[in-house]
C-alpha cells in the first residue's frame, strides 16, 4: 500500500512539473534584443592594414531609452583607446545621432556615449573618424548595438564587412601636346610707293599661335637678304642698325629697312602672357628691329594659349637717288615652336 502511495505521489509531482516548468520558463526567459530594421558599416578605406574612418548607420526597431551606440570590431582590427567622431556629411535620408557624443575605445569596441533617445523607424548615422585600422584581407563580422545607460541591449545587428588588398583605382590619362601656327598671308606690300620724303610701312601680316605647351611658345624670323634688293638696278635698301635688343629708328631720306612686331591679341584663355622681343618692339611708325640672315626671336609667351596674335609690319625709307624699279624684295621666313 505504501508503495502504491509513493508511486502516486511521484506521478503527481511529475505531472505538476510538466505543468509548472513551462510557465516558470516563460517567466525567467531573457528578453532578446531586436535586430535593427537596417544597419551597415561603411569604411572610407577597405584596404587591408589601413587606417580608416567608419560610417555607422542603423534604424532602431525596439522601444527603449538609448544612451549609447557600440560598434564591436572583429578580432584583428586595431581599435584605438581614444577614437574621435562626428556627425558630418551623412548620406541623404540619414539623421545625425542626437546628443552630446563622446567616443572611447576598449578592446575591440568603440562606445559612443551621450546619445539621447532614438525614434524607432528613423535612420541614424554617426562617423568614427579616427582610431580604427583595418585587419588583413577577408570577410569579417562586426556588430552594431544600442544600449541603455546601464548597458542593457536595445537593438543589435551583426553586419558583414569585407577587407580587400587594395581599394583604389589609379586613373591614367594622356593629353597630347598641341601647337598651331598660322600666317594670315604670304605676301605683304608697302601701303604706298617708297619716297625719300617719308617712311612707309607694309599692311602687315599676322601670326596666330595656339598651344597647350605649359612653357608657352617662341616665334623667330629670318631675312633672306637683310635688305630689300632689286635685280633690275642691282641696288639694295639694307636693314638699319644691329641686333642689340633695342629697336632702330628710320630717317626719311636715308636708306633703311626694319621689322616691327606688334602684339595684336594676348588671348585671355590660357596661362601665358605674350612678350615682344625688345629688338623688334618698335615704339612708333618709324622704328623696328634689324633684320638678320639667321633666325632671331621676335616674340614669345610663357604659358598655354587659345590664340595669341602678333602682327609683323615692315618699314622702309630711301634716299632721293635710289634707282627706280618695281622689284625691290626680300623674303622673311617666320617660324615658331611650342615650349613644352
Explain how this protein is built.
The protein has 340 residues and is mainly β. It is built from one helix and 23 strands. The strands form six sheets. Strands 1, 2, 4, 5 and 8 form a five-stranded mixed β-sheet that branches. The chain has a five-stranded antiparallel β-sheet with strand order 6-7-3-9-10, with no helix packed on it. Strands 11, 12, 13, 18 and 22 form a five-stranded antiparallel β-sheet that branches. The chain starts with a helix and ends with a strand. Residues 4-10 and 16-32 have low confidence and may be disordered.
> How many β-strands, per DSSP?
23
CATH top-level class of the largest domain:
Mainly Beta
Helix content: under 10%
Sequence of secondary-structure elements: HEEEEEEEEEEEEEEEEEEEEEEE
DSSP strand content: 35-45%
CATH architecture of the largest domain: Sandwich
Task: Outline the biggest β-sheet.
Answer: 5 strands, mixed
Shape: rod-shaped
Domain count: the total is 2
Q: Nutshell version of this structure?
A:
The chain has one helix spanning 2-28, and strands at residues 38-43, 51-59, 68-72, 78-86, 95-96, 99-106, 109-115, 124-133, 138-147, 153-163, 179-183, 200-201, 205-211, 217-223, 227-229, 236-238, 248-249, 256-265, 274-276, 287-288, 296-301, 305-317, 332-338. It has 340 residues and is mainly beta. The strands form six sheets. Strands 1, 2, 4, 5 and 8 form a five-stranded mixed β-sheet that branches. It has a five-stranded antiparallel β-sheet with strand order 6-7-3-9-10, with no helix packed on it. Strands 11, 12, 13, 18 and 22 form a five-stranded antiparallel β-sheet that branches.
Amino acid at each position: 500500500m505504501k508503495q502504491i502511495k509513493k508511486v502516486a505521489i511521484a506521478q503527481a509531482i511529475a505531472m505538476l512539473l510538466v505543468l509548472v516548468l513551462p510557465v516558470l520558463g516563460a517567466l525567467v526567459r531573457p528578453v532578446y534584443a531586436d535586430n535593427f530594421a537596417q544597419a551597415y558599416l561603411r569604411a572610407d578605406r577597405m584596404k587591408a592594414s589601413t587606417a580608416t574612418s567608419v560610417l555607422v548607420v542603423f534604424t532602431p526597431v525596439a522601444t527603449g531609452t538609448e544612451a549609447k551606440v557600440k560598434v564591436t570590431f572583429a578580432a584583428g582590427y586595431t581599435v584605438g583607446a581614444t577614437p574621435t567622431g562626428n556627425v558630418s556629411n551623412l548620406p541623404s535620408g540619414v539623421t545625425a545621432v542626437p546628443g552630446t557624443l563622446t567616443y572611447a575605445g576598449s578592446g575591440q569596441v568603440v562606445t559612443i556615449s551621450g546619445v539621447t533617445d532614438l525614434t524607432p523607424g528613423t535612420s541614424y548615422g554617426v562617423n568614427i573618424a579616427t582610431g580604427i585600422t583595418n585587419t588583413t584581407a577577408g570577410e569579417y563580422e562586426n556588430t552594431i548595438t544600442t544600449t541603455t545607460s546601464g548597458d542593457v541591449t536595445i537593438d543589435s545587428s551583426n553586419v558583414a564587412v569585407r577587407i580587400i588588398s587594395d581599394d583604389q583605382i589609379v586613373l591614367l590619362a594622356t593629353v597630347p601636346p598641341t601647337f598651331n601656327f598660322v600666317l594670315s598671308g604670304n605676301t605683304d606690300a608697302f601701303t604706298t610707293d617708297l619716297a625719300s620724303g617719308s617712311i612707309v610701312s607694309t599692311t602687315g601680316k599676322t601670326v596666330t599661335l595656339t598651344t597647350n605647351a605649359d612653357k608657352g611658345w617662341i616665334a623667330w624670323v629670318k631675312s633672306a637678304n637683310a635688305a630689300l634688293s632689286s635685280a633690275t638696278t642691282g641696288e639694295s635698301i639694307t636693314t638699319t642698325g644691329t641686333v642689340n635688343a633695342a629697336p632702330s629708328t628710320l630717317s626719311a631720306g636715308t636708306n633703311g629697312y626694319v621689322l616691327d612686331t606688334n602684339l595684336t591679341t594676348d588671348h585671355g584663355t590660357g596661362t601665358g602672357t605674350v612678350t615682344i622681343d625688345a629688338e623688334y618692339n618698335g615704339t612708333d611708325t618709324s622704328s623696328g628691329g634689324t633684320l638678320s640672315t639667321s633666325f632671331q626671336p621676335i616674340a614669345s609667351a610663357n604659358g598655354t594659349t587659345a590664340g595669341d596674335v602678333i602682327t609683323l609690319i615692315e618699314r622702309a625709307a630711301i634716299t632721293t637717288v635710289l634707282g627706280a624699279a618695281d622689284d625691290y624684295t626680300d623674303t622673311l621666313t617666320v617660324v615658331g615652336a611650342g615650349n613644352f
